Amino acid sequence: MTIAKASAKAVAKAPAKINDVAGCLYVVATPIGNLEDISMRALRILKEADVIACEDTRQTLKLLSHFDIQKRLVSHHEHNEITRAAELVIELEQGAKVALVSDAGTPAISDPGHRLVSLSLRHGIKVVPVPGASAFVAALAASGMPIEQFLFVGFLPSKQSERRQTLRTLAEEPRTLVMYEAPHRLLDSLEDALEILGNRPAVIAREVTKLYEESVRDHLEGLVENVRKKPPRGEITILIGTPDGQPQHNGNAANATAPPLARRVDEIMQEKQVDRKVALKQAARERGLTKREAYKQLLVTRDE
Questions:
Q1: In CATH, which of 3.40.630.10, 3.40.50.1440, 3.40.30.120, 3.40.1010.10 is domain 13-133?
Q2: What is the pLDDT of residue 148?
Q3: What is the pTM assigned to this prediction?
Protein backbone atom coordinates (compact mmCIF):
# COMPACT_ATOMS: atom_id res chain seq x y z
CA MET A 1 0.00 0.00 0.00
CA THR A 2 1.36 3.44 -0.92
CA ILE A 3 1.86 6.19 1.64
CA ALA A 4 -0.88 8.22 -0.04
CA LYS A 5 -3.39 5.37 0.13
CA ALA A 6 -2.48 4.60 3.75
CA SER A 7 -3.00 8.25 4.69
CA ALA A 8 -6.35 8.38 2.92
CA LYS A 9 -7.49 5.24 4.71
CA ALA A 10 -6.45 6.67 8.08
CA VAL A 11 -8.36 9.87 7.41
CA ALA A 12 -11.47 7.91 6.43
CA LYS A 13 -11.41 6.05 9.75
CA ALA A 14 -10.64 9.12 11.86
CA PRO A 15 -13.57 10.81 13.62
CA ALA A 16 -14.80 13.94 11.84
CA LYS A 17 -13.89 17.30 13.32
CA ILE A 18 -16.63 19.79 14.01
CA ASN A 19 -17.14 21.99 10.97
CA ASP A 20 -17.15 25.62 12.13
CA VAL A 21 -19.13 26.82 9.13
CA ALA A 22 -21.78 24.09 9.37
CA GLY A 23 -25.12 24.42 11.03
CA CYS A 24 -26.24 22.52 14.08
CA LEU A 25 -28.55 19.57 14.63
CA TYR A 26 -30.66 19.85 17.78
CA VAL A 27 -32.19 16.62 19.09
CA VAL A 28 -35.27 17.99 20.82
CA ALA A 29 -37.42 16.00 23.25
CA THR A 30 -41.13 16.85 23.11
CA PRO A 31 -43.97 16.00 25.53
CA ILE A 32 -45.27 12.43 25.61
CA GLY A 33 -48.70 13.58 26.65
CA ASN A 34 -48.93 16.63 28.87
CA LEU A 35 -47.90 19.71 26.86
CA GLU A 36 -46.70 21.40 30.06
CA ASP A 37 -43.74 19.01 30.06
CA ILE A 38 -41.97 20.83 27.22
CA SER A 39 -38.98 22.86 28.38
CA MET A 40 -38.41 26.56 27.82
CA ARG A 41 -35.19 25.68 26.05
CA ALA A 42 -36.98 23.30 23.67
CA LEU A 43 -39.48 26.03 22.78
CA ARG A 44 -36.65 28.48 22.09
CA ILE A 45 -34.83 26.01 19.84
CA LEU A 46 -38.01 25.24 17.90
CA LYS A 47 -38.60 28.97 17.37
CA GLU A 48 -35.01 29.58 16.24
CA ALA A 49 -34.65 26.53 13.97
CA ASP A 50 -34.58 26.96 10.20
CA VAL A 51 -36.31 23.64 9.70
CA ILE A 52 -37.94 21.05 11.95
CA ALA A 53 -37.55 17.39 10.98
CA CYS A 54 -40.46 15.47 12.43
CA GLU A 55 -41.77 11.93 12.45
CA ASP A 56 -45.30 13.01 11.51
CA THR A 57 -45.74 16.61 10.34
CA ARG A 58 -49.41 16.58 11.37
CA GLN A 59 -48.58 15.56 14.93
CA THR A 60 -45.80 18.12 15.31
CA LEU A 61 -47.99 20.82 13.79
CA LYS A 62 -50.43 20.38 16.68
CA LEU A 63 -47.62 20.99 19.16
CA LEU A 64 -46.27 24.01 17.30
CA SER A 65 -49.73 25.52 16.84
CA HIS A 66 -50.37 25.26 20.58
CA PHE A 67 -47.29 27.39 21.23
CA ASP A 68 -47.85 29.65 18.20
CA ILE A 69 -44.69 28.53 16.38
CA GLN A 70 -44.57 28.61 12.58
CA LYS A 71 -41.68 26.82 10.88
CA ARG A 72 -40.89 24.80 7.79
CA LEU A 73 -41.54 21.14 8.55
CA VAL A 74 -40.09 18.11 6.75
CA SER A 75 -41.07 14.51 7.38
CA HIS A 76 -38.40 12.25 8.82
CA HIS A 77 -39.66 8.77 9.68
CA GLU A 78 -38.60 5.14 9.48
CA HIS A 79 -39.64 4.78 5.85
CA ASN A 80 -37.71 7.76 4.45
CA GLU A 81 -34.96 8.19 7.05
CA ILE A 82 -32.10 7.04 4.81
CA THR A 83 -32.76 9.53 2.01
CA ARG A 84 -34.07 12.34 4.20
CA ALA A 85 -31.05 12.19 6.50
CA ALA A 86 -28.76 12.83 3.54
CA GLU A 87 -30.91 15.79 2.41
CA LEU A 88 -30.89 17.32 5.87
CA VAL A 89 -27.12 16.93 6.20
CA ILE A 90 -26.72 19.00 3.02
CA GLU A 91 -28.77 21.78 4.62
CA LEU A 92 -26.76 21.48 7.81
CA GLU A 93 -23.50 21.78 5.87
CA GLN A 94 -24.87 24.98 4.36
CA GLY A 95 -25.35 26.44 7.82
CA ALA A 96 -28.94 25.56 8.68
CA LYS A 97 -30.16 24.95 12.21
CA VAL A 98 -32.22 21.77 12.20
CA ALA A 99 -34.43 20.64 15.09
CA LEU A 100 -35.11 16.90 15.11
CA VAL A 101 -38.28 15.80 16.93
CA SER A 102 -40.38 12.64 17.11
CA ASP A 103 -44.12 12.40 17.63
CA ALA A 104 -43.53 12.25 21.39
CA GLY A 105 -40.57 11.88 23.69
CA THR A 106 -36.89 11.80 22.77
CA PRO A 107 -35.86 11.18 19.14
CA ALA A 108 -33.78 8.05 18.42
CA ILE A 109 -35.08 6.31 21.58
CA SER A 110 -37.25 3.61 19.96
CA ASP A 111 -38.02 6.29 17.36
CA PRO A 112 -36.34 7.49 14.14
CA GLY A 113 -33.31 9.74 14.46
CA HIS A 114 -30.21 7.58 14.88
CA ARG A 115 -29.24 7.68 11.19
CA LEU A 116 -29.46 11.47 11.01
CA VAL A 117 -27.45 11.91 14.20
CA SER A 118 -24.79 9.43 13.07
CA LEU A 119 -24.52 10.91 9.57
CA SER A 120 -24.31 14.45 10.93
CA LEU A 121 -21.44 13.50 13.24
CA ARG A 122 -19.59 11.79 10.38
CA HIS A 123 -19.83 15.04 8.41
CA GLY A 124 -18.45 17.10 11.28
CA ILE A 125 -21.75 18.71 12.18
CA LYS A 126 -22.39 19.63 15.78
CA VAL A 127 -25.18 17.63 17.45
CA VAL A 128 -26.77 19.11 20.57
CA PRO A 129 -29.28 17.22 22.77
CA VAL A 130 -32.19 19.18 24.21
CA PRO A 131 -33.41 16.79 26.92
CA GLY A 132 -36.94 16.30 28.10
CA ALA A 133 -39.68 13.71 28.37
CA SER A 134 -39.09 9.99 27.87
CA ALA A 135 -41.86 7.49 28.60
CA PHE A 136 -39.67 4.71 29.95
CA VAL A 137 -37.69 7.06 32.22
CA ALA A 138 -40.88 8.54 33.66
CA ALA A 139 -42.40 5.09 34.17
CA LEU A 140 -39.22 3.79 35.78
CA ALA A 141 -39.00 6.70 38.22
CA ALA A 142 -42.52 6.07 39.50
CA SER A 143 -42.42 2.28 39.37
CA GLY A 144 -41.04 1.50 42.82
CA MET A 145 -38.70 -1.01 41.18
CA PRO A 146 -34.97 -1.19 41.95
CA ILE A 147 -33.49 1.41 39.61
CA GLU A 148 -29.87 1.61 40.71
CA GLN A 149 -29.28 -0.30 37.47
CA PHE A 150 -31.73 -1.14 34.72
CA LEU A 151 -31.75 -2.42 31.15
CA PHE A 152 -33.91 -0.77 28.49
CA VAL A 153 -34.62 -3.24 25.70
CA GLY A 154 -36.98 -1.17 23.54
CA PHE A 155 -39.77 -3.16 21.87
CA LEU A 156 -39.73 -6.93 22.15
CA PRO A 157 -39.87 -8.73 18.77
CA SER A 158 -43.40 -9.19 17.46
CA LYS A 159 -42.76 -12.76 16.29
CA GLN A 160 -43.23 -15.18 19.20
CA SER A 161 -40.19 -17.36 18.52
CA GLU A 162 -37.93 -14.30 18.37
CA ARG A 163 -39.59 -12.73 21.40
CA ARG A 164 -39.11 -15.87 23.48
CA GLN A 165 -35.48 -16.11 22.39
CA THR A 166 -34.92 -12.50 23.45
CA LEU A 167 -36.47 -13.21 26.85
CA ARG A 168 -34.24 -16.27 27.28
CA THR A 169 -31.18 -14.07 26.79
CA LEU A 170 -32.53 -11.85 29.58
CA ALA A 171 -33.29 -14.68 32.03
CA GLU A 172 -30.00 -14.23 33.90
CA GLU A 173 -30.06 -10.43 33.72
CA PRO A 174 -29.79 -9.07 37.31
CA ARG A 175 -31.12 -5.59 36.50
CA THR A 176 -34.68 -4.29 36.24
CA LEU A 177 -35.93 -4.80 32.68
CA VAL A 178 -37.76 -1.98 30.90
CA MET A 179 -39.51 -2.36 27.57
CA TYR A 180 -42.25 -0.96 25.37
CA GLU A 181 -45.09 -3.08 24.03
CA ALA A 182 -48.09 -2.64 21.75
CA PRO A 183 -51.49 -3.26 23.41
CA HIS A 184 -52.44 -6.09 21.06
CA ARG A 185 -49.23 -7.99 21.92
CA LEU A 186 -49.18 -7.26 25.65
CA LEU A 187 -50.82 -10.47 26.83
CA ASP A 188 -48.60 -12.68 24.67
CA SER A 189 -45.47 -10.91 25.90
CA LEU A 190 -46.50 -11.15 29.55
CA GLU A 191 -47.29 -14.86 29.22
CA ASP A 192 -43.92 -15.51 27.59
CA ALA A 193 -42.15 -13.46 30.28
CA LEU A 194 -43.95 -15.37 33.04
CA GLU A 195 -42.94 -18.74 31.61
CA ILE A 196 -39.34 -17.83 30.83
CA LEU A 197 -38.42 -15.33 33.56
CA GLY A 198 -40.57 -16.68 36.36
CA ASN A 199 -43.19 -14.94 38.48
CA ARG A 200 -41.31 -11.71 39.08
CA PRO A 201 -42.68 -8.40 40.39
CA ALA A 202 -43.66 -6.18 37.50
CA VAL A 203 -45.42 -2.96 36.54
CA ILE A 204 -47.54 -2.02 33.55
CA ALA A 205 -47.36 1.76 33.05
CA ARG A 206 -49.97 2.96 30.59
CA GLU A 207 -50.49 6.36 28.95
CA VAL A 208 -47.76 8.04 31.02
CA THR A 209 -48.52 11.77 31.60
CA LYS A 210 -51.79 11.50 29.66
CA LEU A 211 -55.41 11.82 30.79
CA TYR A 212 -55.92 8.09 31.48
CA GLU A 213 -52.49 7.44 32.96
CA GLU A 214 -52.24 4.44 35.26
CA SER A 215 -49.67 2.05 36.69
CA VAL A 216 -50.63 -1.48 37.70
CA ARG A 217 -48.22 -3.22 40.09
CA ASP A 218 -48.28 -6.97 40.70
CA HIS A 219 -46.34 -10.11 39.89
CA LEU A 220 -46.35 -11.28 36.29
CA GLU A 221 -48.90 -13.97 37.10
CA GLY A 222 -51.34 -11.39 38.44
CA LEU A 223 -50.75 -9.01 35.56
CA VAL A 224 -51.46 -11.79 33.06
CA GLU A 225 -54.84 -12.39 34.72
CA ASN A 226 -55.63 -8.67 34.79
CA VAL A 227 -54.84 -8.22 31.10
CA ARG A 228 -56.90 -11.28 30.19
CA LYS A 229 -59.92 -9.77 31.95
CA LYS A 230 -59.42 -6.20 30.75
CA PRO A 231 -57.04 -5.67 27.82
CA PRO A 232 -55.55 -2.18 28.14
CA ARG A 233 -55.32 0.47 25.44
CA GLY A 234 -52.78 3.18 24.72
CA GLU A 235 -49.01 3.35 24.95
CA ILE A 236 -47.55 0.80 27.35
CA THR A 237 -44.28 0.43 29.22
CA ILE A 238 -43.50 -2.84 31.00
CA LEU A 239 -41.08 -2.99 33.92
CA ILE A 240 -39.95 -6.39 35.23
CA GLY A 241 -38.00 -6.60 38.46
CA THR A 242 -35.60 -9.16 39.80
CA PRO A 243 -36.96 -12.23 41.60
CA ASP A 244 -38.47 -11.34 45.00
CA GLY A 245 -35.82 -10.36 47.51
CA GLN A 246 -32.93 -10.68 45.08
CA PRO A 247 -30.39 -7.84 45.19
CA GLN A 248 -29.52 -6.41 41.80
CA HIS A 249 -25.82 -7.14 42.21
CA ASN A 250 -25.93 -10.64 43.65
CA GLY A 251 -27.66 -13.32 41.68
CA ASN A 252 -26.94 -16.00 44.31
CA ALA A 253 -28.49 -14.21 47.28
CA ALA A 254 -32.15 -14.41 46.28
CA ASN A 255 -32.95 -17.71 47.94
CA ALA A 256 -30.25 -17.83 50.60
CA THR A 257 -32.79 -18.18 53.41
CA ALA A 258 -35.39 -20.16 51.45
CA PRO A 259 -35.82 -23.90 52.00
CA PRO A 260 -34.04 -26.20 49.53
CA LEU A 261 -35.86 -26.47 46.24
CA ALA A 262 -36.52 -30.21 46.65
CA ARG A 263 -38.15 -29.63 50.04
CA ARG A 264 -40.30 -26.81 48.66
CA VAL A 265 -41.44 -29.04 45.78
CA ASP A 266 -42.46 -31.72 48.27
CA GLU A 267 -44.34 -29.14 50.35
CA ILE A 268 -46.33 -27.95 47.32
CA MET A 269 -47.14 -31.51 46.31
CA GLN A 270 -48.58 -32.20 49.76
CA GLU A 271 -50.34 -28.84 50.16
CA LYS A 272 -52.02 -28.77 46.74
CA GLN A 273 -52.15 -32.47 45.91
CA VAL A 274 -50.42 -31.98 42.56
CA ASP A 275 -47.77 -33.99 40.77
CA ARG A 276 -44.04 -33.19 40.91
CA LYS A 277 -44.02 -31.44 37.53
CA VAL A 278 -46.70 -28.94 38.55
CA ALA A 279 -45.08 -28.42 41.96
CA LEU A 280 -41.69 -27.77 40.36
CA LYS A 281 -43.22 -25.19 38.04
CA GLN A 282 -44.77 -23.32 40.98
CA ALA A 283 -41.56 -23.46 43.02
CA ALA A 284 -39.64 -22.11 40.04
CA ARG A 285 -42.03 -19.18 39.71
CA GLU A 286 -41.74 -18.38 43.41
CA ARG A 287 -37.99 -18.11 43.08
CA GLY A 288 -37.89 -16.36 39.73
CA LEU A 289 -36.29 -19.34 38.01
CA THR A 290 -36.90 -20.82 34.60
CA LYS A 291 -38.15 -24.40 34.53
CA ARG A 292 -34.79 -25.53 33.19
CA GLU A 293 -32.89 -23.77 36.00
CA ALA A 294 -35.20 -25.24 38.63
CA TYR A 295 -34.80 -28.74 37.22
CA LYS A 296 -31.01 -28.40 37.29
CA GLN A 297 -31.12 -27.26 40.92
CA LEU A 298 -33.36 -30.19 41.79
CA LEU A 299 -30.90 -32.63 40.25
CA VAL A 300 -27.98 -31.05 42.11
CA THR A 301 -29.90 -31.23 45.40
CA ARG A 302 -30.66 -34.91 44.87
CA ASP A 303 -27.03 -35.65 44.02
CA GLU A 304 -25.91 -33.96 47.23
A1: 3.40.1010.10
A2: 86
A3: 0.72
